[in-house]
Protein backbone atom coordinates (compact mmCIF):
# COMPACT_ATOMS: atom_id res chain seq x y z
CA UNK A 1 0.00 0.00 0.00
CA UNK A 2 1.38 3.46 -0.87
CA UNK A 3 2.58 5.73 1.94
CA UNK A 4 2.58 9.49 2.36
CA UNK A 5 4.34 11.51 5.01
CA UNK A 6 2.07 13.84 6.92
CA UNK A 7 3.72 16.80 5.19
CA UNK A 8 3.18 15.23 1.76
CA UNK A 9 -0.47 14.53 2.56
CA UNK A 10 -1.07 18.08 3.79
CA UNK A 11 0.57 19.47 0.67
CA UNK A 12 -1.60 17.34 -1.62
CA UNK A 13 -4.83 18.17 0.22
CA UNK A 14 -4.04 21.89 0.27
CA UNK A 15 -3.23 21.81 -3.46
CA UNK A 16 -6.50 19.98 -4.18
CA UNK A 17 -8.47 22.59 -2.26
CA UNK A 18 -6.68 25.53 -3.91
CA UNK A 19 -7.02 24.11 -7.42
CA UNK A 20 -10.75 23.78 -6.89
CA UNK A 21 -11.28 27.31 -5.56
CA UNK A 22 -10.16 27.62 -1.93
CA UNK A 23 -8.04 30.52 -0.74
CA UNK A 24 -4.57 29.39 0.43
CA UNK A 25 -5.25 29.97 4.14
CA UNK A 26 -8.53 28.05 3.96
CA UNK A 27 -6.92 25.24 1.98
CA UNK A 28 -4.19 24.93 4.62
CA UNK A 29 -6.78 24.80 7.40
CA UNK A 30 -8.72 22.04 5.63
CA UNK A 31 -5.49 20.11 4.99
CA UNK A 32 -4.46 20.23 8.66
CA UNK A 33 -7.87 18.97 9.76
CA UNK A 34 -8.23 16.15 7.22
CA UNK A 35 -4.69 14.87 7.54
CA UNK A 36 -4.90 15.11 11.33
CA UNK A 37 -8.06 12.98 11.28
CA UNK A 38 -6.44 10.47 8.91
CA UNK A 39 -3.39 10.20 11.18
CA UNK A 40 -5.65 9.54 14.17
CA UNK A 41 -7.36 6.66 12.33
CA UNK A 42 -10.58 8.65 11.77
CA UNK A 43 -10.67 7.91 8.06
CA UNK A 44 -14.31 8.94 7.64
CA UNK A 45 -13.17 12.49 8.41
CA UNK A 46 -9.87 12.21 6.57
CA UNK A 47 -8.65 11.92 3.00
CA UNK A 48 -11.90 10.29 1.85
CA UNK A 49 -13.50 13.77 2.12
CA UNK A 50 -11.23 15.44 -0.45
CA UNK A 51 -13.20 14.54 -3.58
CA UNK A 52 -16.50 15.67 -2.05
CA UNK A 53 -15.02 18.91 -0.75
CA UNK A 54 -13.51 19.61 -4.17
CA UNK A 55 -16.86 19.03 -5.89
CA UNK A 56 -18.59 21.33 -3.41
CA UNK A 57 -16.00 24.05 -4.04
CA UNK A 58 -16.61 23.84 -7.78
CA UNK A 59 -20.39 23.97 -7.28
CA UNK A 60 -20.04 26.87 -4.79
CA UNK A 61 -21.88 24.80 -2.21
CA UNK A 62 -18.99 25.84 0.02
CA UNK A 63 -17.30 29.22 -0.44
CA UNK A 64 -13.59 28.50 -0.53
CA UNK A 65 -12.72 32.19 -0.27
CA UNK A 66 -14.91 32.95 2.76
CA UNK A 67 -13.29 34.62 5.75
CA UNK A 68 -14.91 33.98 9.14
CA UNK A 69 -16.28 37.11 10.80
CA UNK A 70 -15.64 37.23 14.56
CA UNK A 71 -17.60 39.50 16.94
CA UNK A 72 -18.02 39.77 20.74
CA UNK A 73 -21.73 40.38 21.49
CA UNK A 74 -21.12 39.76 25.22
CA UNK A 75 -17.90 39.68 27.30
CA UNK A 76 -17.89 35.89 27.46
CA UNK A 77 -19.34 35.15 24.01
CA UNK A 78 -17.44 34.88 20.72
CA UNK A 79 -19.83 34.86 17.75
CA UNK A 80 -18.42 33.57 14.49
CA UNK A 81 -20.06 33.72 11.07
CA UNK A 82 -18.40 31.05 8.90
CA UNK A 83 -19.98 32.78 5.88
CA UNK A 84 -20.82 29.47 4.17
CA UNK A 85 -17.14 28.59 4.02
CA UNK A 86 -15.43 25.52 5.46
CA UNK A 87 -15.92 25.03 9.19
CA UNK A 88 -12.20 24.62 9.86
CA UNK A 89 -11.15 28.29 9.54
CA UNK A 90 -14.07 29.25 11.81
CA UNK A 91 -13.03 26.59 14.32
CA UNK A 92 -9.45 27.88 14.14
CA UNK A 93 -10.79 31.35 14.95
CA UNK A 94 -12.70 29.96 17.93
CA UNK A 95 -9.63 28.14 19.25
CA UNK A 96 -7.64 31.38 18.99
CA UNK A 97 -10.29 33.57 20.66
CA UNK A 98 -11.52 31.35 23.48
CA UNK A 99 -8.42 31.01 25.72
CA UNK A 100 -8.02 34.73 26.53
CA UNK A 101 -11.78 35.12 26.84
CA UNK A 102 -12.11 32.12 29.19
CA UNK A 103 -9.21 33.32 31.33
CA UNK A 104 -10.88 36.72 31.60
CA UNK A 105 -14.38 35.50 32.45
CA UNK A 106 -13.89 31.93 33.71
CA UNK A 107 -16.27 30.45 31.16
CA UNK A 108 -16.49 31.40 27.48
CA UNK A 109 -18.55 30.24 24.54
CA UNK A 110 -18.04 30.41 20.80
CA UNK A 111 -21.03 30.08 18.50
CA UNK A 112 -20.46 29.31 14.82
CA UNK A 113 -23.22 29.74 12.24
CA UNK A 114 -23.52 29.34 8.47
CA UNK A 115 -20.98 26.56 8.82
CA UNK A 116 -20.04 23.27 7.18
CA UNK A 117 -18.76 19.80 8.14
CA UNK A 118 -16.65 20.14 11.31
CA UNK A 119 -14.77 16.89 10.74
CA UNK A 120 -13.14 15.24 13.76
CA UNK A 121 -14.85 17.15 16.56
CA UNK A 122 -12.12 16.22 19.03
CA UNK A 123 -9.51 18.37 17.27
CA UNK A 124 -10.62 21.85 18.42
CA UNK A 125 -11.36 20.76 21.99
CA UNK A 126 -7.99 19.01 22.17
CA UNK A 127 -6.30 22.24 21.06
CA UNK A 128 -8.13 24.13 23.81
CA UNK A 129 -7.14 21.52 26.41
CA UNK A 130 -3.52 21.87 25.30
CA UNK A 131 -3.94 25.55 26.19
CA UNK A 132 -5.02 24.50 29.68
CA UNK A 133 -8.81 24.74 29.28
CA UNK A 134 -11.65 22.28 29.66
CA UNK A 135 -13.72 22.33 26.47
CA UNK A 136 -16.90 20.90 24.98
CA UNK A 137 -18.12 21.06 21.38
CA UNK A 138 -21.60 20.41 20.01
CA UNK A 139 -22.23 20.25 16.25
CA UNK A 140 -25.32 19.57 14.22
CA UNK A 141 -25.15 17.87 10.85
CA UNK A 142 -27.58 17.23 7.96
CA UNK A 143 -30.52 14.95 8.65
CA UNK A 144 -29.49 11.34 9.17
CA UNK A 145 -31.43 10.01 12.19
CA UNK A 146 -35.14 9.60 12.79
CA UNK A 147 -36.84 10.50 16.08
CA UNK A 148 -37.64 7.58 18.37
CA UNK A 149 -40.56 5.71 16.85
CA UNK A 150 -40.30 7.60 13.53
CA UNK A 151 -38.77 6.84 10.14
CA UNK A 152 -37.99 10.25 8.60
CA UNK A 153 -34.64 11.80 9.50
CA UNK A 154 -34.87 15.04 11.48
CA UNK A 155 -31.61 14.91 13.44
CA UNK A 156 -28.04 14.74 12.29
CA UNK A 157 -25.45 12.36 13.68
CA UNK A 158 -24.61 15.41 15.84
CA UNK A 159 -21.16 14.83 17.38
CA UNK A 160 -20.22 15.82 20.91
CA UNK A 161 -16.60 16.27 21.96
CA UNK A 162 -14.95 16.95 25.32
CA UNK A 163 -11.35 17.51 26.36
CA UNK A 164 -9.53 18.35 29.57
CA UNK A 165 -5.84 18.84 30.39
CA UNK A 166 -3.86 16.15 32.23
CA UNK A 167 -0.61 17.27 33.87
CA UNK A 168 2.50 16.17 31.99
CA UNK A 169 0.72 14.25 29.24
CA UNK A 170 -1.65 14.60 26.32
CA UNK A 171 -5.18 15.83 27.12
CA UNK A 172 -8.04 13.44 27.68
CA UNK A 173 -10.33 13.66 24.63
CA UNK A 174 -13.80 12.18 24.16
CA UNK A 175 -15.25 12.43 20.64
CA UNK A 176 -18.41 10.62 19.73
CA UNK A 177 -21.20 10.71 17.22
CA UNK A 178 -24.76 10.23 18.44
CA UNK A 179 -25.38 7.72 15.71
CA UNK A 180 -23.93 4.28 16.36
CA UNK A 181 -21.10 5.21 14.00
CA UNK A 182 -20.25 8.43 12.18
CA UNK A 183 -21.87 8.73 8.76
CA UNK A 184 -18.42 9.29 7.27
CA UNK A 185 -17.64 5.65 8.04
CA UNK A 186 -20.53 4.60 5.81
CA UNK A 187 -19.32 6.92 3.05
CA UNK A 188 -15.80 5.49 3.35
CA UNK A 189 -17.17 1.94 3.11
CA UNK A 190 -19.13 2.88 -0.02
CA UNK A 191 -15.99 4.35 -1.60
CA UNK A 192 -14.08 1.13 -0.82
CA UNK A 193 -16.90 -1.06 -2.14
CA UNK A 194 -17.31 -2.77 1.23
CA UNK A 195 -20.40 -3.88 3.16
CA UNK A 196 -21.19 -2.37 6.56
CA UNK A 197 -22.33 -4.16 9.75
CA UNK A 198 -26.10 -4.63 9.85
CA UNK A 199 -26.52 -2.59 13.03
CA UNK A 200 -25.04 0.66 11.69
CA UNK A 201 -27.94 1.95 9.62
CA UNK A 202 -31.45 1.45 8.23
CA UNK A 203 -32.57 1.67 4.62
CA UNK A 204 -35.32 3.99 3.39
CA UNK A 205 -37.94 1.45 4.52
CA UNK A 206 -36.57 1.33 8.05
CA UNK A 207 -34.91 -2.08 7.67
CA UNK A 208 -31.35 -2.89 8.84
CA UNK A 209 -28.95 -2.92 5.88
CA UNK A 210 -25.37 -3.91 5.07
CA UNK A 211 -25.39 -1.88 1.84
CA UNK A 212 -23.68 1.49 2.40
CA UNK A 213 -25.54 3.05 -0.53
CA UNK A 214 -28.89 2.01 0.96
CA UNK A 215 -27.71 3.29 4.34
CA UNK A 216 -26.87 6.70 2.90
CA UNK A 217 -30.37 6.85 1.41
CA UNK A 218 -31.92 5.79 4.72
CA UNK A 219 -31.16 6.69 8.32
CA UNK A 220 -28.38 6.00 10.82
CA UNK A 221 -29.01 3.86 13.89
CA UNK A 222 -28.81 6.02 17.04
CA UNK A 223 -26.28 5.38 19.77
CA UNK A 224 -28.12 3.95 22.77
CA UNK A 225 -31.54 3.86 21.17
CA UNK A 226 -34.03 6.43 22.47
CA UNK A 227 -31.40 7.99 24.78
CA UNK A 228 -29.14 8.72 21.83
CA UNK A 229 -32.02 10.35 19.99
CA UNK A 230 -32.75 12.55 23.02
CA UNK A 231 -29.12 13.65 23.10
CA UNK A 232 -29.28 14.40 19.35
CA UNK A 233 -32.26 16.66 20.05
CA UNK A 234 -30.25 18.47 22.73
CA UNK A 235 -27.32 18.99 20.36
CA UNK A 236 -29.65 20.17 17.58
CA UNK A 237 -31.03 22.86 19.88
CA UNK A 238 -27.60 23.96 21.16
CA UNK A 239 -25.66 23.88 17.88
CA UNK A 240 -28.38 25.10 15.52
CA UNK A 241 -31.28 26.61 17.47
CA UNK A 242 -29.06 28.62 19.80
CA UNK A 243 -26.55 29.76 17.15
CA UNK A 244 -29.11 30.75 14.50
CA UNK A 245 -28.08 27.96 12.14
CA UNK A 246 -30.14 25.56 10.02
CA UNK A 247 -31.61 22.49 11.67
CA UNK A 248 -30.61 19.09 10.31
CA UNK A 249 -33.77 18.68 8.24
CA UNK A 250 -33.18 22.11 6.65
CA UNK A 251 -29.51 21.53 5.80
CA UNK A 252 -28.18 20.15 2.52
CA UNK A 253 -25.95 17.08 2.56
CA UNK A 254 -22.24 17.11 3.39
CA UNK A 255 -21.82 14.13 1.03
CA UNK A 256 -22.57 15.64 -2.39
CA UNK A 257 -22.43 18.90 -4.37
CA UNK A 258 -26.19 19.33 -4.72
CA UNK A 259 -28.19 22.20 -3.27
CA UNK A 260 -27.10 25.28 -1.39
CA UNK A 261 -24.66 25.55 1.52
CA UNK A 262 -25.48 23.32 4.52
CA UNK A 263 -25.56 26.29 6.92
CA UNK A 264 -25.20 24.17 10.06
CA UNK A 265 -23.76 25.32 13.39
CA UNK A 266 -21.30 24.53 16.15
CA UNK A 267 -21.14 25.62 19.78
CA UNK A 268 -17.94 25.42 21.84
CA UNK A 269 -17.75 25.95 25.60
CA UNK A 270 -14.38 26.62 27.25
CA UNK A 271 -13.79 26.60 31.01
CA UNK A 272 -10.71 27.98 32.75
CA UNK A 273 -10.09 25.34 35.47
CA UNK A 274 -8.42 27.94 37.72
CA UNK A 275 -11.74 29.78 38.01
CA UNK A 276 -13.37 26.72 39.56
CA UNK A 277 -10.65 24.94 41.54
CA UNK A 278 -6.99 25.36 42.39
CA UNK A 279 -6.31 21.70 41.63
CA UNK A 280 -8.67 20.70 38.82
CA UNK A 281 -6.08 19.20 36.41
CA UNK A 282 -4.54 17.21 39.25
CA UNK A 283 -7.98 15.90 40.17
CA UNK A 284 -8.57 14.95 36.54
CA UNK A 285 -5.32 12.97 36.71
CA UNK A 286 -6.52 11.07 39.80
CA UNK A 287 -9.53 9.71 37.94
CA UNK A 288 -7.51 8.99 34.81
CA UNK A 289 -5.01 7.06 36.90
CA UNK A 290 -7.75 5.04 38.61
CA UNK A 291 -9.07 3.98 35.21
CA UNK A 292 -5.66 3.07 33.81
CA UNK A 293 -4.78 1.10 36.96
CA UNK A 294 -7.40 -1.49 36.06
CA UNK A 295 -6.14 -4.34 33.92
CA UNK A 296 -7.57 -4.11 30.41
CA UNK A 297 -9.00 -0.61 30.91
CA UNK A 298 -7.86 2.42 28.93
CA UNK A 299 -8.78 6.05 28.59
CA UNK A 300 -10.74 7.23 25.55
CA UNK A 301 -8.35 8.29 22.80
CA UNK A 302 -5.50 5.91 23.67
CA UNK A 303 -5.74 4.17 20.29
CA UNK A 304 -5.96 7.53 18.52
CA UNK A 305 -2.76 8.76 20.14
CA UNK A 306 -0.94 5.54 19.28
CA UNK A 307 -1.98 5.80 15.63
CA UNK A 308 -0.97 9.47 15.56
CA UNK A 309 2.51 8.65 16.87
CA UNK A 310 2.88 5.88 14.30
CA UNK A 311 1.78 8.18 11.46
CA UNK A 312 4.30 10.80 12.55
CA UNK A 313 7.18 8.33 12.28
CA UNK A 314 6.00 5.96 9.52
CA UNK A 315 3.62 8.08 7.45
CA UNK A 316 0.08 7.28 6.31
CA UNK A 317 -1.03 4.12 4.53
CA UNK A 318 -3.17 5.36 1.64
CA UNK A 319 -5.11 3.13 -0.72
CA UNK A 320 -4.33 3.27 -4.44
CA UNK A 321 -7.79 4.64 -5.19
CA UNK A 322 -7.65 7.40 -2.55
CA UNK A 323 -4.13 8.39 -3.62
CA UNK A 324 -5.13 8.48 -7.30
CA UNK A 325 -8.17 10.63 -6.54
CA UNK A 326 -6.18 12.93 -4.26
CA UNK A 327 -3.47 13.38 -6.89
CA UNK A 328 -6.04 14.03 -9.61
CA UNK A 329 -7.77 16.71 -7.51
CA UNK A 330 -4.41 18.34 -6.69
CA UNK A 331 -3.67 18.58 -10.42
CA UNK A 332 -7.15 19.70 -11.47
CA UNK A 333 -7.38 22.77 -13.66
TrEMBL record:
Q: Which InterPro entries match?
A: Mal/L-sulf/L-lact_DH-like_ah, Mal/L-sulf/L-lact_DH-like_NADP, Mal/L-sulfo/L-lacto_DH-like_sf, Malate/L-lactate_DH-like
Q: Which UniProt keywords apply?
A: Oxidoreductase
- Recorded GO MF terms: oxidoreductase activity
Query: What's the family?
Result: Belongs to the LDH2/MDH2 oxidoreductase family.
Name the PANTHER family for this protein: MALATE DEHYDROGENASE, OXIDOREDUCTASE-RELATED
Name the chain's protein.
Ldh family oxidoreductase
Instruction: Identify the species of origin.
Output: Chenggangzhangella methanolivorans
